TrEMBL record:
GO molecular-function term, one example from the UniProt record: oxidoreductase activity
Name of the protein in question: Multicopper oxidase CueO
Listed InterPro entries: Cu-oxidase-like_N, Cu-oxidase_C, Cu-oxidase_fam, Cu_oxidase_Cu_BS, Cupredoxin, TAT_signal
EC number of the protein: 1.16.3.4
Ranges for region Disordered: 66-89
Subunit details: Monomer.
The organism's taxonomic lineage, starting at the top: Bacteria, Pseudomonadati, Pseudomonadota, Betaproteobacteria, Burkholderiales
Keyword Magnesium: no
Domain Plastocyanin-like: 114-176, 450-567
């Protein structure tokens, strides 16, 4: 692993580092958790916890700050990690400025479990929720306040990725761009106390649009940010590094009372009737502490309890009206299949967005499956249920290891209870129109090349095209403002949720067959089932620099199932 530090000594090649990484991480666990040593053993059985003991924690919008000191600049400023210059700097910092402090803090997953240490954005899990608008740039200054010499699992160096904003590479959170106050990765030139991420919030295609706006059909709504530190993404995300970033525009305006005739008027008010739901599973030992053992296997780390917005089996009181829920699978390896249950009967809901992309038209569904990093926006109309009704969001998907889903349970596990509590204080004027957001066209005449990416296991190491990830070498070089077809191949009996940074793709086929309706829109996570071949159409617009393609089973990613691809002018 290429890394810049003051310490000298023998250097391992990357394959040796990966093979030995699990052992070194486990050694750190001894220091982090005295009395609870991590041995190569079966996962522990966690303690029982009573359901519905606390309300759902509802994210609220993060507030801006008036100024930053030192003032942001095109180039790194004093105290900042040595990033590349901002590609889209306009001569002054954006008006919207944020600070997020990545730090250690105490967190309670459940009243019957001990309070324990996490690493979180602003010290919370989930982290803060930034609410942004298209064509309103913002700058986020991330401070790394984790002890740079911290022991235990995870790495005190960080690299924040905003999944999946169309943004410049220096703000994308490349795996090799990690940093702390004393150490930095091969993509940077120095360590730092903080790093500025500039998010222009442009629609894709803005650089070739005479109006400088881009294609409004390229908008996303539900995004999230998480750590992407080389070799330690799984462990840092597992320690709590996940936050939310929601985007709005004229169409999806975030105002159900919007007088603009173009506005969709979907259920609105982040934290009121527009509710993010972040699902993440954790492995608890018999004492009730979160447990991590890299020696169990490298298939995919699964927990024995699922949290919703950081709590185990919370309840949420709802009014008899429509709500928009933004479901995010923030687990490191677990897939889910969610059902809305009223007693033993599954209920229909309205599916409106996949991976943050509004569909052309809503779909009526009674289940939604998510792989790690996938998102789904759904609308539930609680006006159909009388006061006192209790509905449950249930995961019925069976999964015993990181190989992938194995089928459905007849009953499943109740994760969240909805209590139909009161009538709305005013008339519900929100709606779900018959048309949502049109799709941009797929012009195959623009395709300049077809590439193949094979996701496989090679001598117990996860690979892409038979190679392990090298942060300093591009596996592909593409020309800016061109288009290609990428064929993603999953070899063997594994599921791989493949994430492509910076650009949304369109699925052309799965094993030669058109995708199902909910996958016919734009996506940034493409699930490869065992021995499956998926063809996607992808463009490379506006920015140059280094980006990533990887499996979002984070165990696989950290065991080198990742590739760098560069965009050149």
């Amino acid at each position: 692993m290429s890394d810049t530090t003051q310490h000298k000594g023998p250097r391992l090649n990357r394959r040796q580092s990966i093979q030995l990484g699990a052992a070194s991480a486990a050694a750190g666990l001894v220091a982090a958790r005295p009395g609870r040593l991590a041995h190569a053993e079966d996962p522990p059985t966690g303690p029982s916890t009573a359901p519905w003991m606390m309300p759902l924690t509802v994210p609220v919008p993060k507030q801006t700050v008036a100024s930053l000191s030192p003032e942001p600049s095109h180039y790194p400023v004093a105290g900042e990690a040595g990033r590349d210059p901002h590609q889209t700097w306009t001569g002054a910092a954006p008006q919207k400025l944020y600070t997020i402090r990545v730090k250690e803090a105490l967190h309670s997953f459940h009243p019957q479990l001990p309070t324990q240490t996490i690493w979180g954005y602003d010290g919370t899990f989930p982290g803060p929720c930034i609410v942004a608008r298209y064509n309103e740039p913002c700058l986020v200054r991330f401070y790394n306040e984790i002890n740079p010499y911290a022991v235990g699992y995870g790495s005190p160096e960080i690299s924040v990725h905003l999944h999946n904003l169309h943004c410049a590479s220096e703000s994308d959170g490349f795996a090799g761009d990690y940093w702390s106050s004393v150490r930095y990765g091969p993509g940077l030139t120095r360590a730092g106390q903080f790093k500025d991420h500039l998010f222009m919030n442009h629609y894709a295609g803005f650089s070739t649009d005479p109006a400088g706006i881009g294609d409004t059909r390229e908008a996303l709504g539900t995004l999230w940010f998480h750590d992407h530190r080389l070799d330690f993404t799984e462990q840092n995300v597992y320690r709590g590094m996940a936050g939310l970033y929601l985007m709005f525009d004229e169409l999806d305006s975030g105002n159900e009372k919007d007088p603009n005739p173009l506005a969709l008027k979907l259920p609105s008010g982040v934290g009121q009737y527009d509710i993010p739901l972040v699902f993440a599973d954790f492995l608890f030992d018999k004492s009730g502490y979160v447990y991590y053992n890299p020696l169990i296997d490298n298939k995919g780390h699964l927990g024995n309890k699922v949290t919703v917005n950081g709590k185990i089996q919370p309840y949420f009181k709802v009014q008899r009206r429509k709500y928009r829920f933004r479901l995010l699978d923030a687990s490191v390896a677990r897939f889910y299949e969610f059902y809305l249950m009223n007693g033993t009967t599954s209920q229909n809901f309205t599916y409106i967005a996949n991976d943050g992309n509004l569909l052309p038209a809503p779909l009526t569904m009674n289940a939604v499956r998510l792989a790690p990093a996938e998102r789904a926006d759904i609308v539930i109309d609680f006006s159909k249920y009388p006061h006192g009704t209790r509905l449950y969001l249930v995961n019925r998907l069976l999964m015993k290891d990181g190989r992938g889903p194995e089928g459905l349970s007849s009953r499943g596990e109740q994760l969240l209870r909805f209590d139909v509590d009161t009538d709305p204080m005013e008339q519900d004027v929100s709606q779900v129109p018959a048309r949502l957001r049109d799709l941009p066209p797929i012009n195959l005449n623009d395709v300049v090349r077809t590439r193949r990416w094979e996701f496989d296991k090679d001598n117990a190491i996860w690979t892409v095209n038979k190679k392990i990830f090298d942060p300093e070498k591009a596996a592909a070089v593409v020309k800016r403002n061109t288009a290609e077809i990428w064929e993603l191949r999953g070899n063997g009996s594994w599921h791989h949720p493949v994430h492509i940074h910076m650009e949304e793709v369109r699925i052309l086929s799965r094993n030669g067959v058109p995708p199902p309706p909910h996958e016919q829109g734009r996506k940034d996570v493409i699930v490869l089932k065992p021995d499956e071949r998926v063809k996607v159409f992808i463009r490379f617009r506006d920015f140059t620099g280094k980006y990533l393609l990887h499996c979002h089973n984070l165990t696989h990613e950290d065991h080198a199932m990742m590739a760098r691809w560069d965009v050149v002018a």
